């Protein structure tokens, strides 16, 4: 097991009605800026619950943060936050609103060019305190340090991370997610599943407990994913899904183990180019990447196939392939395609284009062993496009 440091400072408020509990987490009289997306929180009652819970605070609002949050929009919120001298940012929504708010929180006190936080990894030395009310289980953003920000004018989608981006608290009320369209639930299951695989399908890290954590999350998502899709109002199934998605990317299962993240890096380029939903980019990359990089991942692929999918027959190569096939079938069963060829408008030169964009950013050795070179990226996407 590798050495690691672990401290997750986000307090989780989990369960029905927990929005009502945020009052005790915020000093009365605080100036709170709530941030949200395109309006789903107004339609499902979450907005009203939030406003009621903030009765003792001075509240200002910033709505309109779009999926794959846009830099230009976020900069408007930065301006407002500076003018209003807000004490706390409260992000209410899915991963995009949460990520966007992490950027706003870091950018408000930032002295230099704000885009450098994302583009150049400029050090974030402080941030306005932020907290979250999550309405879409998927990204883990509610209790991690990551944010992914898009800039349409340059077709960029880039991540940053700072210890100052940990939300002070995260409300996870499964009932706030009942209003999600099926597609977003399926996306969420796939995203959480892929976060787990990125921290698991690498090479043996002699970290048995982490392996078991990861396998537990994967098996739970396999069980509960289809159920919560079919019965969105089944509270316990949805609660299990919400908690799985949080644990998949709150830092715990990644402690002391090698991590991959090549699928995410490639996927972000597909979103930047074509606006594809984040989870859907992962589903068209991962299976092909696991085949192309099969040798380096063989031992874990075999372990995955056996422990998660019960595959015990065949040679190691056959078992590894069976695990990948089961993954594809699972994603497809949720209505999430696993081939790039299924998306209209994806041009034939996409594999080359994505490879060269990643190369241009200096990402020439992705994956746990740096084996995912631009050539490998091109091959993976070519296979997905030809499949
Ligand atoms: O904007 P509103 O009206 O709120 O509608 C949203 C949006 O259209 C809707 N929605 C959210 N909660 C709802 C709801 N609709 C009905 N009922 C509800 N309860 O869902 C749509 C998609 O929302 P979005 O926030 O974009 O989805 P998601 O949570 O999947 O976030 C995706 C973003 O997170 C980034 C992705 O790259 C992408 O930009 N990621 C962030 C990560 C992190 N911070 O750790 C890691 C991930 O790998 C990922 O990269
Ligand atoms: Zn993801």
Blueprint of the fold:
Elements: E1 11-14, E2 31-35, H1 40-43, H2 46-53, E3 58-62, H3 71-84, E4 88-93, H4 95-107, H5 116-119, E5 130-134, E6 146-151, E7 156-161, E8 169-172, H6 182-198, H7 208-230, H8 235-248, H9 262-274, H10 278-292, H11 298-309, H12 316-333, H13 350-360, H14 374-386
Parallel strand pairs: 1-8, 2-3, 2-4, 4-5, 5-8
Antiparallel strand pairs: 6-7
Helix pairs in contact: 3-4, 6-7, 6-8, 6-10, 7-8, 7-11, 9-10, 9-13, 10-12, 10-14, 11-12, 13-14
Bound molecules: 5,6-dihydroxy-NADP (NZQ) and zinc ion.
Features:
binds zinc ion; 14 helices; binds 5,6-dihydroxy-NADP; alpha/beta; 387 residues; 11% strand; 2 domains; Dehydroquinate synthase-like, alpha domain; 8 strands; Rossmann fold
Choose one word for the global shape. globular
CATH architecture of the largest domain: Up-down Bundle
Q: In CATH, what is the class of the largest domain?
A: Mainly Alpha
Bound small molecules, deduplicated: 5,6-dihydroxy-NADP, zinc ion
Q: Would you report the number of β strands?
A: 8
Strand content: 5-15%
Number of helices: 14
Average pLDDT rating: 97
The main sheet orders its strands as 1-8-5-4-2-3
Total tally of structural domains: 2
Distance between the termini: 37 Å
Instruction: Give the low-pLDDT segments.
Output: none
CA radius of gyration is 20 Å
- What is the CATH superfamily label of the largest domain? Dehydroquinate synthase-like - alpha domain
Structural class: alpha/beta
Please give the largest β-sheet. Answer: 6 strands, parallel
In the CATH hierarchy, the third-tier topology of the largest domain is known as: Dehydroquinate synthase-like, alpha domain
């Amino acid at each position: 097991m590798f050495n690691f440091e672990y401290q997750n400072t986000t307090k989780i408020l989990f369960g029905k009605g927990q929005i009502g509990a945020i009052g005790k987490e915020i000093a009365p009289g605080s100036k709170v800026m709530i941030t949200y997306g395109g309006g789903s929180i107004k339609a499902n009652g979450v907005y009203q619950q939030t406003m009621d819970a903030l009765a003792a605070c001075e509240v200002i609002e910033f709505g309109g943060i779009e999926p794959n949050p846009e830099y230009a929009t976020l900069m408007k919120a930065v301006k407002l936050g500076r003018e209003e001298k807000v004490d706390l940012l409260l992000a209410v929504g899915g991963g995009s609103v949460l990520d966007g708010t992490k950027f706003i929180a870091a950018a408000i006190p930032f002295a230099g060019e704000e885009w450098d936080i994302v583009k150049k990894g400029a050090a974030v030395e402080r941030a306005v305190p932020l907290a979250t009310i999550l309405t879409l289980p998927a990204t883990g953003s509610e209790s991690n340090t990551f944010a992914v920000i898009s800039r349409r004018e340059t077709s960029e989608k880039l991540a940053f991370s700072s210890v100052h981006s940990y939300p002070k608290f995260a409300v996870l009320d499964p009932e706030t997610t009942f209003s999600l369209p099926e597609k977003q639930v399926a996306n969420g299951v796939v995203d959480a599943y892929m976060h787990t695989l990125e921290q698991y399908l690498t090479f043996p890290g002699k970290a048995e407990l982490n392996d078991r954590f990861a396998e537990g999350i994967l098996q739970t998502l396999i069980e509960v994913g289809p159920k919560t899709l079919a019965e969105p109002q089944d509270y316990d199934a949805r609660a299990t899904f919400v908690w799985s998605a949080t644990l998949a990317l709150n830092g715990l299962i990644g402690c002391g183990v090698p991590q991959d993240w090549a699928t995410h890096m490639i996927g972000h380029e597909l979103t930047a180019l074509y606006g594809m939903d984040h989870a859907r980019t992962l589903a068209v990359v991962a299976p092909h990447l696991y085949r192309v990089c099969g040798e380096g991942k063989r031992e874990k692929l075999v372990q995955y196939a056996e422990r998660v999918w019960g595959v015990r027959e065949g040679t190691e190569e056959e078992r590894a392939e069976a695990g990948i096939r089961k993954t594809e079938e699972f994603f497809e069963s949720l209505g999430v395609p696993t081939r790039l060829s299924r998306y209209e408008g994806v041009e034939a030169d996409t594999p080359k284009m994505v490879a060269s964009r990643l190369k241009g950013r200096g990402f020439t050795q992705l994956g746990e062993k740096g084996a995912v070179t631009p050539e490998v990226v091109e091959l993976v996407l070519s296979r997905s496009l030809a499949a």
